[in-house]
Amino acid sequence: MKTLFFDKITETALDFCGKLIREGELVAFPTETVYGLGADATNTDAVCKIYEAKGREGDNPLIVHFADPADIEVYASIPDKALFEKLSAAFMPGPLTVVLPRKDALSPRVSAGLSTVAVRVPSHEGARAFIRAARRPIAAPSANRSHRPSPTAASHVVEDMDGKIAAILDGGTCEHGVESTVLLLSDTLRLLRPGAVTREMIEEVTGREVLVDAGVLSRVEDVRRVASPGMKYRHYAPQAPLSAVVGEDERVCAFFAKAQSEGAGILCYEEDLEYLAKNERTMSLGSAEDYAAQAETLFCALRTFDKRRVERIYTRLPKEEGVGLAVKNRLLRACEFDIIEV
Ligand code: AMP
Ligand code: MG
User: What atom of ligand 1 comes closest to residue 229's alpha carbon?
Assistant: First the structure.
């Protein structure tokens, strides 16, 4: 298949891509988190194409994207309206996905056999214009091949999806760089995946405690009872083996310097750079507590190591506060929980 590439989001591009969606084709589009791989969420054949193009496990459900929070009720039940109102007023549009009981208007394939559906309203103007042009709810996981780092620029989508999908809409680089926060709304509020909307922000807006699911920071032991199927799989991984290095700053830097001299790739903090040699295998994730910068850099840096054919990578692991929790979660999955204490 020839993949059409639109280097700008124009009215013509939107009309064309909206029609492709209604015809059951796949279109990659930018959002404020990462690039999404979109299909008509009401069309089972179209949704199946997403799993095929990504090589995604069939039991890992998709997020359905809407242009307007008011459209969600057509496709999902909202048991606690007051709670939903608070969340949607604060974070919709925005990088928050909520998991709700599903309704029948959606293809059952978006939920991969679950009775729930994950829904979100992106804040990226181009993303919402695309959804409006399609006149359909858009099922969209990240537009990478499964297990690869998520795409934060259209060029990353080309690397993984060229020839496999109908079109790519280029809307520049993504603002946040990590996927949306996923929150299960039931009797308790449970964070299934951390993102740019933080646990602290949700607690402030709802006045309720947010539980962090065990799968966010640890390996999922019992795969039958996992709350979010995506937690079971290796994710975001570069080609080279990756390990996280933790300990006092001085010791971590000494470890990095030695590994660097042996040819390893290093993903360090800005503050570490002065203790390390400058080379193309050493990249800064951002300042130690600038979690937003780290989130923005993370996936692009992992892809860059692949391009530079690095054979071993060591990384810092940020704290669990604010957006740091999201960065830590992605790095733990990328390194498959391989942590070296120094
Ligand atoms: P991605 O599409 O790559 O952004 O991944 C979507 C994430 O949301 C995966 O980790 C899924 O397991 C999770 N997810 C999607 N739908 C549901 C759902 N109905 N219940 C729980 N988790 C979900
Ligand atoms: Mg993904």
Answer: 12
Closest ligand to Cα 149 = 2
DSSP track, 152-204: SSHHHHHHHHTTTSSEEE---S-SS-SPPEEEEESSSEEEEE--SS-HHHHHH
Domain boundaries, the chain: 4-216, 242-341
Q: Which atom of ligand 1 is nearest to the CA of 193?
A: 10
How many Cα atoms sit within 13 Å of 232 on the Cβ side?
Answer: 14
- Domain 4-216 indexed as CATH 3.40.50.10860: no
Do 96 and 197 touch, CB atoms closer than 8 A? yes
What is the CATH architecture assignment of 242-341? 3-Layer(aba) Sandwich (3.40)
The CA 310 to ligand 2 mean position distance, Å, reads 23
Ligand 2 geometric centre to CA of 286 (Å): 23
Neighbours of 250 (CB within 10 A): 10
Question: pLDDT for 28-67, tens place per residue?
Answer: 999 999 999 999 999 999 999 999 999 999 999 999 999 9
Ligand 1 within 6 A of CB of 226:
no
| pLDDT for the residue 101 | 97
CA of 150 to the centre of ligand 2 (A): 6
State whether residue 269 is helix, strand or coil: strand
Which ligand has its closest atom nearest to the C-alpha of 97?
1
Render pLDDT for 62-89 as a digit per residue (tens, 0 to 9): 999 999 999 999 999 999 999 999 999 9
Which candidate, 12, 68, 89, places its Cα nearest to that of 20?
12
